[in-house]
């Protein structure tokens, strides 16, 4: 099953109070399969962004995904994960 993960994370201050959110959609964006969010305490923005990605990928795997597309606004995470 192909899915789309949309994930984001952020902190107020860097480091500061931080959290993330992630949503797993069907590939056609018609249905939500899973949602994850968490306050992670004091962390940097980059840590929060990566935690959102990890949570989204774990939720996608738990939903039975065998192909995952990811949408994020973190330039750092996107460039590092793209090689």
Structure description:
With 83 residues, the protein is of the alpha+beta class. 30% of the residues lie in helices and 46% in strands. It is built from two helices and four strands. The protein has helices at residues 45-62, 75-81; strands at 2-11, 16-26, 32-43, 67-71. Strands 3-2-1-4 form a four-stranded mixed sheet, covered by helices on one side. A hairpin with a 5-residue loop joins strand 2 and strand 3 (32-43). It is globular and about 40 Å long. The relative contact order is 0.30. The mean pLDDT is 97.
Which structural class matches the secondary elements? Answer: alpha+beta
Q: Approximately how much beta-strand content do the residues carry? A: over 45%
Approximate shape = globular
Strands ordered across the widest β-sheet: 3-2-1-4
Helix content range: 25-40%
What average pLDDT do the residues reach? 97
Essential attributes:
globular, 4 strands, 2 helices, 83 residues, 4-stranded mixed beta sheet, alpha+beta
